[in-house]
Amino acid sequence: VVSVVFLAGILALGVVFRANLAEGAIARWCDSKGLSCAAQVTDLSTDRVSLSGVRISSGAGVPFEANEITAELTWPGFLTPTATLVVGRPPVVRAAFDVTTVTAYGLEDALPSGGGDGGGGAVPSLDISDAVLILDTPAGSVTGNFRFLGQVPDAFEAGLVLQPPTLEQASDRLNINAAAMEVAVSDDGLRGGLNIDVPGASLGETAVDAFLVTMDIAPDGDGTQIIWSGRADAAAYGATSAKDVVFDGLSQLGPVLEL
């Protein structure tokens, strides 16, 4: 998501120039941030900018690709275009996890933290579907499909479904059969759910078999209520073990989206 917002600011600058100059401006800006960017401007007008064949590289990593990105523009000030809607079809986002931190291969260092380079600082509405997320870990890669529609933090909905991975490193093993998450924010509050199915895992001194967990998130007054439940055929930590484990719980949270 942040990659598409970042590109929206750069795309907005392109409307000031001709298409070929816009492509050169994008390439030079990316180079100044230590990135390598490739894209073709396919539509350029005062209220719309479109790119095809978008590819952002950082060293050996490719944190972002998309067949097409389109930004709808408004002009709140002289020569200060602002993207109001960004549509990505279908983007591929790649990140890396080294057990302690998650990075986007350096792309996160180039992202604007405030006002942005393309005009206003407001985050545009996003319409992203059929997107692919790839997370590289020391034990292998995890791939998922995600979608996002709306504007942060006012109103949006998002979903992520992981493709079943088996991750192994030394004596550690994690086998995920299914994992899915849905989140929606509206005037009513935060809603969502999470489902995870892990046939087996062995991480250090911890091991589980047939582990299932579900979580439901719903508005509750001015806050949010989270209800979770789960079970495992067997669980062990060191010399302690148990069978037919069942658990559930409920949490009440205050406002969580006061950004």
Write the layout of secondary structure elements.
Blueprint: H1 2-14, H2 19-32, E1 36-44, E2 48-58, E3 61-77, E4 80-89, E5 92-97, E6 102-103, H3 107-110, E7 125-137, E8 140-151, E9 155-162, E10 166-169, E11 172-175, E12 178-186, E13 189-203, E14 206-220, E15 223-237, E16 240-253
Parallel strand pairs: 4-7, 5-7
Antiparallel strand pairs: 1-2, 2-3, 3-4, 3-5, 5-6, 7-8, 8-9, 9-12, 10-11, 11-13, 12-13, 13-14, 14-15, 15-16
Characterization of the model:
About 3% of the residues have low confidence. With 259 residues, the protein is mainly β. Helix 1 packs across helix 2. 22% of the residues are buried. It has a 16-stranded mixed β-sheet that branches.
Radius of gyration: 21 Å
* First-residue to last-residue Cα separation: 17 Å
Q: How many beta-strand segments? A: 16
Largest beta-sheet details = 16 strands, mixed
Net shape: globular
Beta-strand residue fraction: over 45%
Could you say which structural class the secondary elements and strand pairing correspond to? Answer: mainly beta
Q: Portion of residues in helices?
A: 10-25%
How would you briefly describe this protein structure?
The chain has helices at residues 2-14, 19-32, 107-110, and strands at residues 36-44, 48-58, 61-77, 80-89, 92-97, 102-103, 125-137, 140-151, 155-162, 166-169, 172-175, 178-186, 189-203, 206-220, 223-237, 240-253. The chain is mostly beta strands. The protein has a 16-stranded mixed beta sheet that branches.
